[in-house]
Amino acid sequence: MTQQLHLQSTTELSNGVRMPWLGLGVFQVEEGAELVEAVKAAIRFGYRSVDTAAIYGNESGVGQGIREALSENGLSREDLFVTSKVWNADLGYESTLAAYETSLRKLGLDYLDLYLIHWPVAGKYKDAWRALEKLYKEGRVRAIGVSNFQVHHLEDLMAGAEAKPMVNQVEFHPLLSQKELRRYAAEQGIQLEAWSPLMQGRLLDHPVLKEIAARHGKSIAQVILRWDLQHGVVTIPKSTKESRIAENGSLFDFELSAGEMAEIDGLNRDERVGPDPDNFDF
Question: Signal peptide location in the record (predicted)?
Fold first, then answer.
């Protein structure tokens, strides 16, 4: 990861599809004008990736924002990388196929660039994965993957799968650096992607991060997101404020030193802000 990258730079997934390093996340953003304007602001600023999910309940607004942004910025659908996820209640073969159609309809799209299994619900994710493989083989989705899968979930899934997950989207931030999972994903050619990269704002006054940010004349958020990228982790910070969306995207004019990367790595506490994938109930 070098600072020659820019906001539309991409990583190549194992199947050759290119995925932007940075995207807009819309977790906990309700349907409505604020959501539509956030999507439009991100695309206007130069973002080319938007990440949503069925459970977020905002796919329709995301779709509206995408359509308006494409029209206003002279872009085509192929210029964007759109991700959604199948929710736990729909994890089954036929139910996952139906959930995909529902997401497409709400988004107003003909295909997704990436479709993920949202959580590794025991006894259910293998049937859902067969459905994703079918969608992928039929060309209905450009890439398929999982979210919140630990190493043992991935091993279990891949033991009987035709295709490896191309992406694993997980909680990742300086207090949860997922070292073992990162190593395994790299060995298997699975692209890691970070959700909650800023730990839902809990890291924005951390003294170590504050000091590193001051050295670079950057915000703590920018330092954390840059740390993600230099670890080869795709990241999707959430914001609805245009100024923050622009700030989060301004990561390509500085680089953290090896020493600074090690300083941030040293903050790891294996501390989660979200549920434990091995022990969740929803």
Answer: none
